[in-house]
Structure formats: C-alpha cells, structure tokens
Amino acid sequence: MAEVTFMSSMGIGMLVDARSRAAGKKMKVVLANVATELDQLLRMVKLDKVFTICTNKKQLHKALKR
Fold first, then answer.
1. Fewer CB within 10 Å, N- or C-terminus of the chain?
2. What are residue 9's phi and psi, to 5 degrees?
3. Dihedral of the CA atoms 27, 36, 2, 47 (nearest 10)?
4. Which pLDDT score, from 0 to 100, does residue 66 have?
5. Cα separation of 2 and 27, whole Å?
C-alpha cells in the first residue's frame, strides 16, 4: 500500500468488507507498507482499531508472527 495516499469511502468500505470476509475464514488482514498520508487517514477514522497497520518491514514481520 506504499503508493496509496488517498482512499475514498468506497475504498474504505472495500477494506472493511475484506476484513469481514477474512474473519469469516479465521484470518486477519494486515495492511503493509502504509504511506504516511493513508496511515493518518486510517487512524483518523479509527480503523487502526480494526486493522493491523504496518508502516515498515519491522512492524510487518512482527504482525505476521502473530
């Protein structure tokens, strides 16, 4: 997601839908390489409570070990 700097409400809805589908299969969605602008947006709308958001490789490795 490194090159995503903006996301409309439709994009956010698609992320939430992907999370719901993953949860139905006992999986989780990890958002990797999230750009600063998108990270701020996701936190503003409280989606950091719903998704694991990784802005760097260290965070991603830690998230994937869980």
1. C
2. -65, -30
3. 20
4. 76
5. 22
Q: Which residue has the tokens 């809805």?
A: 13
Reading phi first (left if > 0) and then psi (alpha if -120 to 50, else beta), residue 24 is in: alpha
CB neighbours of 28 closer than 8 A, spacing ≥ 6? 19, 22, 52
In this prediction, residues 36-52 reach a mean pLDDT of 94
> Would you kindly state where each structural domain of the chain is located, as residue ranges?
9-65
Which pLDDT score is estimated for 13? Answer: 95
pLDDT at residue 56 above 90? Answer: yes
Specify the residue for token string 């998704």: 51
> Mean pLDDT over residues 1-26, rounded?
94
Q: Stretch 2-21: mean pLDDT, rounded?
A: 94
C-alpha 37/C-alpha 15 separation (Å) is 16
